[in-house]
Amino acid sequence: MPRITADELKSRRREFVEEAGRTFDQMLGADGQNGLVTFEQREERACELGDALTQRLLEEHLAADDAADPDVEVACPICEEPMFCQAPEKVELQNRKVRTRRGTVEYERAARQCKRCRRVFFPRG
Ligand SMILES: [Zn+2]
């Protein structure tokens, strides 16, 4: 079963579009200039706002990933041995942070431990 339903996707899209609208307002303000005068000021603001939207896009995509919260069985990324988990719905998701070219993004992953490698993994983390 996909992690995200069509309705949820629609609602997330609507929220993203609203965020993009607020981003536009933060750039243009009520008067189309918003106090930004020099090219450097405009560039700085546009890049900052664009980076925030990029981060959000990436976070949305990561959150919709099935691997974020895998089922009973998932393969170890090193030895490919199946890592079982009897009650995946009880595994607490852990917050992960990763630095990207456009800043830090946060997402949640359920940890799994490989008995053979004795290592903890965050699937596709
Ligand atoms: Zn392993």
Give structural attributes.
125 residues, two-stranded antiparallel ribbon, two-stranded antiparallel sheet, binds zinc ion
Describe this structure in words.
The protein has 125 residues and is an alpha+beta fold. It is elongated, with a radius of gyration of 20 Å. The mean pLDDT is 88. It is built from 2 helices and 6 strands, in the order H-H-E-E-E-E-E-E. It is 38% helix and 22% strand. The chain starts with 5 loop residues before the first helix and ends with a strand. The site of zinc ion has 7 residues, from loops.
TL;DR of this structure?
With 125 residues, the chain is of the alpha+beta class. The chain has two helices and six strands.
Main structural class: alpha+beta
* Strand and helix order: HHEEEEEE
From the spread of the alpha carbons, the general shape counts as elongated
Poorly predicted tracts of residues: none
Helical content stands at: 25-40%
Strand order across the biggest sheet?
1-2
Q: What Rg is obtained from the alpha carbons, in whole angstroms?
A: 20 Å
- Which molecules are bound in this entry? zinc ion
Can you count the helices?
Answer: 2
What's the total number of strands? 6
User: Main beta sheet: strand number and arrangement?
Assistant: 2 strands, antiparallel
Q: How far is the first residue's CA from the last residue's CA?
A: 20 Å
Rounded mean pLDDT score: 88
Strand fraction: 15-25%
